[in-house]
Amino acid sequence: MKSHYQLLVIGAGPAGLAAAADAARLGVDVALVDEQKAPGGQIYRNVGAAGERVKDYLGKDYLRGKRLVDEFLQSGATYINHAPVWYLDERLETGILVDGASHFIGADRLLLATGAQERPMPLPGWQLPGVMTAGAGQILLKSAAMLPTGRLVLAGAGPLLLLIAWQYLRAGVKIEAIIDTTPGSDQLETLPRLARALPALDYLLKGLSFMLAIKKAGIPVYKAIDNLRVEGRESIESVHFNTVRGKSSTEIGIETDTLLLHQGVIPNIRLPLAAGCKVEWDAQQQSWQVAKDIWGQSSVDRVLVAGDCAGIVGARAGELQGRLCALEIAHQLQKIDLEQRDRAAKGIKRSLQRHLSIRPFLDALYAPSQAYQLPHDDTLVCRCEEVNAGQIRQAVRMGCVGPNQVKAFTRCGMGPCQGCLCASTVAALVADETGASMEQVGYFRVRPPFKPITLGELADT
Amino acid sequence: MFRLVEDSGSDTVTLRIEDREYAVPAGISVAAAVLLCGIDKVRTTPVTASPRLPYCMMGICFDCLMRIDGVPNQQACQVEVAQNMTVEYQQGAAELLQQE
Amino acid sequence: MEYDFIVVGGGLVGSSIAYGLARQKYKVAVLDGGDRSFRASRGNFGLVWVQGKGADFAPYAKWTGQAADLWPELVAELANKTGLGIDYQRSGGMHFCLDETEWDERMQEMEQVREHTNGSFEYEMLNHAQLKKHIPQISSAVLGASYSPQDGHVNPLYLLQALQQGMDYHQVDYFPGQAIDRIEAQQGGFCAHSTQGTLSAEKIAICAGLNNRRLGEMLGMDIPVVVDRGQIMITERLQPFLNFPTLHVRQTAEGTVQIGYSHEDVGLDEGTSPSVLKKLASRAVSMFPFLARVGLVRAWGALRVMTPDHNPIYQQSVTCPGAFTVTCHSGVTLAAMHAGPVAGWIAGSDEPDLINRFSTDRFNVSPG
Question: Into which CATH architecture does domain B12-91 fall?
């Protein structure tokens, strides 16, 4: 490990792997830093070591990750694993923690490819043992070859929910029910986008095939529901909701051992913010995105971004964005000239267009539900400090005009997760209570450490 | 409640979770091991002493905090199981470590 | 005039003053900044601190002592009116000394303060053995400490919240998210033009921290504010181990450990720097070795509202009488003083003893 590289890539998901591999091949002195033991990020997690059966259950898309990981490992790029990034600021020196020691790495160019996280889905009882995210279910399958046993319910909306249901069905997991929270009212709006999504027909067909598999398996699917909540004392015992049909409403309770939640994914913008990158609110995706051009150049001179951390695009598009970044960086560092860059980029851009064409349709179809953005007063918003929505609304009524003031008075966001699971909800609540736009409301200030570090490790830097 | 996929590997490690010993596959995280072994919780929260189990499994929720080999507040989903490891509940705030 | 008073700034200083005025039944408006404004309260260590202050300026030693004595009453009053607890404890405070020279110098400072306050300042110098009885985890690297039973600590954010709810209790009109365009003296009072419009009042108090220089100029006051950055860190929650706040390390009511005390001249930069964070961590670990294995949750920078001699400024404009400023970096310790005697002074009742020692005259600047 050196103290300086021409290019430092943060994140070993598809965007980071593709960027690092291509940059290395173009002659850039590149290092890729990642917190996990092996490359793959979350979507291709453990793809290098997963067993045959697990790979079979996960499907062909997961295997693509193996090729990408191999490409990276053979590219000549330096790989620094088990290296969480704990520090980054506008001076662009990246602090990583390796084997209990902190090291700072400088770079001529920094590529942030830190991916996404699940959008929090607060509902009454979501903090009970036995409630997890759909992503957690996937990670358990990918990295530990584990499948849910006992009773299982899936709740939420989005492609990942369909995917995991399909994967579990292939693995013989019994699913008690799927509670589909996809907003129903916008079907008409999604149709025009459907037409524009036809270049990405494979995505559409895949989604349809998942839905068919679920139907064929006879899993009860509940739509048009409200009042979703979890009940149980020391752990989840049942999930309850009301189905609404016209004027009538029926309450349904389903006993279960495990509940997996999903409300889409949102960019992890913490490191881009720490580096000083400009972010913009995207009303369609209901999330903050990092401002960038087609090459991934952010508003900060030496910083580029690729993949889901800048805006949700999916694994294939993320990989292509990574490759465009590599070309741009190679050009900026004078390894290739403008003509070479543009020639190599042509095919990548076309492919990227195709993969991006599905997004408007998916974003419209799976827009996040208001119910989980603006939960009931008695729902926990901050899981770490156990602050509920009512307390946050109260703080706003008492004069807090933004999330940082709310945090100062309620402790919401002060726990170990530093707002990862509550930031989006707090901002939505403030906007709702004050009538301000999301741009006006803003977001929690991000501060280091971005990954845990002890005082001893810091003292020994 | 979780089980292993059949034929998913042979190496195991033995570790202690609270007062019992368990054999789990090598290479998995402590959080995965806790779920596999059907442990009821990983911790109780500092504010209301409520029980929690892992939530996100990817290191951002900090719900899976446990005391591992005597060190409190470890994210169990970020620590790989090891032979003879001791894993305990994180009860509220971290307990003082006496050092001279 | 719509209001008796406009207070510009809703931080610890502005809120104390506004609360104090409203408590006396005056009609008060507060113009406060937004969510991302510079707020010294976010960088405050939460000390209600007496020891060591004013060793080189007798009036401040006395002023601080009085302020600390008024604290318990303010806490009780706020709790009564708002139902909020603010984790105030007059636990006594420690200042660690790492070698003989420090220990001797510290003792001299303590003696100075005792002299300045005619003996009312209480303190004790503790050697290592005595210190260890009170703080078992203290390392052998700490030779001893100065201890004062008059020191305490509080949650500064909860204090701000309680003051704001106290303001609400007394019907203060609170306007958040404001940027002040200009303030004018006019017939019978003052006019403040801000984001939300125009407000008028008979008197105006400028308590906007780093903005005081700019605002003061509009009212003929030359307020020498010096920006000083401090970096702070906070750990995960720990079981209680430290009953006494110190300048560098303080365990909060939640169990988290606050670590701090640094000074930098970097302008309006609330960022952090690895070198200072490393220093803070090293010092904390050298004082409490077990902290080496404790996790850090957050580190940040905050800007102190400093004056050239570090002592507060209480000034009424000469060219625009009725315009006041309160400028200081000890918004917590002095809160009760600000809510009480200083608010009274702004309202036109008796001028508290010593307050004239804190005017801007001492800086040889134009007092307006």
Answer: Roll (3.10)
